[in-house]
Amino acid sequence: MKQIITIILFFTCANAYSGGEYYDVLLSEYVEPFDEGDQFHLVLNFTGEGISKKCNSILLKGTYDQEYWAGYKRPMSLSGHAEAMEYLSGQVGNKIKFGQIGRGLKKLHGCTYLSRGLFLEQHSKEPVVFSVHEKI
Fold this sequence. Notes:
Layout: H1 2-17, E1 21-31, E2 40-46, E3 57-62, H2 66-69, H3 78-89, E4 95-101, E5 106-109, E6 112-115, E7 118-123, E8 126-132
Parallel strand pairs: 3-6, 4-8
Antiparallel strand pairs: 1-2, 1-4, 2-3, 5-6, 7-8
C-alpha cells in the first residue's frame, strides 16, 4: 500500500512541476539564424522578478530541435517555433512576456541559457513566448 501511495504522490508532484511561468521582459537583442538549424540569440532584460536573483538579464541561445520534437504534438512544432521567431523579430526594444514550460531553459553558465524551441501562446489576451527544453 505504501508503494502505491508513493507512486501516486510522485506522479501528482511531477505533473504540478511541469507547469509554466512567464515574466515581463525587455527584448533588447534578437539574432535570427541565417540557416535552418543555426542558433538564435535573444537578450532578455527582466523588468521585474526574473528567473534568477543573480541575473537581471539573460542570453538565450537555441535552435528548434527537429529530431527531439519529432512526433511530439502540442505545443512544439516547427510552424509554432517559426511563429514565435517572427513575433520576436518585430519586438526588439519592446516589453514582451516571456516564459518557460517543461524545464524551458537549460542553464549553460552564468546568465546564459539554452532552449530547444519556442512557441507563442495567448494568455489573458496577451501574446507570451514560451521556451521549452524538455518534453512536457
